[in-house]
């Protein structure tokens, strides 16, 4: 089936899930056309070929310098209409989801989001996606054309890059039209490793603040003292994450209590992640948290309550106080990794 893959990028730097999406298309036996929109993005075309694209359609336009969903949809929808691929894939990033939805409206078709497996049934893609906070897997087919699917990151293998591989590059003109938004600037919300791309995530929950041995500075209210304790606890988590080159995650309880920004939240109303290793510290394992991390390959739970539900999900469990265990783990990992 003729398949187009949208390459999501920020200022010319592709998100790794874009290359995984080429891998997902290849797993269906499709010839892949990568579609790239932006300004000064020729290098992305070269990379797309190296990651397995057979063709690249590239629209370089100064109005596409910043991602604005209306402008990108105005550019992409007519290209898709003209080429009429049977399948259009996006990585499930926030930009990818937004653009997929708008293009689906333009083309009067459906969109299946956050898909974790695909198989062909004739010219239809049977897509598997988690529903009910990941409790059930649903198999769905889109009966309109093109079938639009966003695929979850870190589920499909990223193809091995083949340096020097090339294919057919088609540069196209697009009419971006009137887009009602302008981007005035960017601010970095958090540093460190991005949760979506992380191979290892070290997460903290409400238990991170539970260290009665710490005496807060004089004059703090109870609420301030709790946040202060949590900050000391998250410093332990960040240390371990630093040694493991990991991203820092959090439960919603930790976010709601202002221990850590929302950008770090994992779960049903936070980020959905699929790392190789997820270390949950002081997190009980509520279903809404599990919805965000149950696809992690290996889960380690550190919790002082032996009956905490997270242990049912974890491959390895440590019952004890995270404030003792996490620093010990950091020391052990430093030694093991020679850091
Ligand atoms: C609509 C909706 C959406 C939601 N979305 C999300 C979401 O996206 N993500 C999410 O995480 N939650 C979400 N929630 C909230 C969820 O239901 C839980 O309330 C939340 O996950 C609990 O966070 P927690 O595990 O950190 O806190 P708790 O449930 O309070 O658990 C704290 C854990 O820490 C342990 N602990 C305490 N002290 C220590 C210590 N010193 N050492 C080791 N362990 C210790 C305790 O034994 C306990 O298991 C949502 C809820 C609703 C209703």
Automatic annotation (TrEMBL):
Domain Electron transfer flavoprotein alpha/beta-subunit N-terminal: residue ranges: 3-183
Keywords, alphabetical: Electron transport, FAD, Flavoprotein, Transport
Cofactor: FAD
GO BP term (any one): fatty acid beta-oxidation using acyl-CoA dehydrogenase
GO molecular function terms noted in the UniProt entry: electron transfer activity; flavin adenine dinucleotide binding
Cofactor binding annotation: Binds 1 FAD per dimer.
Pfam families assigned: ETF, ETF_alpha
Highest taxon, organism lineage: Bacteria
Similarity remark: Belongs to the ETF alpha-subunit/FixB family.
Protein name, entry field: Electron transfer flavoprotein subunit alpha/FixB family protein
